[in-house]
Amino acid sequence: MRHRIAAVSAAALLTLAGATGIAEAQPASLYAPSAMVLTVAQGEDAATVVRASTLSCAPTAQGTHPDPKAACAALAATHGTFDALLAAPDTNRACPMHYAPVTVTADGVWQGSRISWKHTFSNSCVMSATFNENAVFAF
After folding, report:
1. Contact partners, residue 16, CB within 8 Å, separation at least 6
2. In what order do the strands lie in the sheet with 35-42?
3. Using CA atoms, how far apart are residues 119 and 43, in angstroms rounded to an integer?
C-alpha cells in the first residue's frame, strides 16, 4: 500500500512540475514585436539627422510617425524587407543631377527579428522618386 501511495504522489508531483514548466514556456504576447526608429539624414554617414520617427506595428500601428497604419501596411506588404521599398521608383519624375546625399535608416525589430538598414540617395528628389509616395519614410 505504501508503494502505491508513493507512486501516486510521485506521479502527481511530476505532472504538476511538468504543467508548471509548460506555463513558463508560453510567450508573454501573441504578437512578435515590430518597433523601430526611422531617420532621414544629410550626408552619406547619416550623422546629421534631419528627421526621425518611431513606428510600432504590433499589436496596433502607433508611434510618432504621421501615418503609422499606412507605414505598417507598406512594411507588411514587403514582409519587412526595406530593400523592396526601393523596387518601384517613379520613372516619370525628373530629378536634378546635383550630388547632395540623403541617407535613410531603420533600426529596431520587425516581427521579432533585429533589423538595421541604411540606404543613401544622391539627393532628396531621387529619394522621393524612388520611394514613390511610399508611407514608410514620409515624415
Report:
1. none
2. 48-56, 35-42, 102-110, 113-121
3. 11
pLDDT digits (tens, 9 = 90+) for 30-62: 778 999 999 999 999 988 999 999 999 998 999
Beta bridge partners of 108: 36, 115
For residue 105, which phi and psi values (nearest 5 degrees)?
A: -135, 155
- Closest C-alpha among 28, 27, 33, 53 to residue 109: 33
Identity of residue 108: G
Question: What is the sign, positive or negative, of the torsion defined by CA atoms of 120, 107, 51, 45?
Answer: negative
Displacement of CA 77 from its chain's centroid (Å): 12
Cut 0.85: pTM above it: no
Grid cell 514613390 is found at 132
Question: What pLDDT, in 10s, does the model give residues 60-95?
Answer: 999 999 999 999 999 999 999 999 999 878 889 999
* Spatial separation of the C-alpha atoms in residues 107 and 37, rounded to whole Å: 5
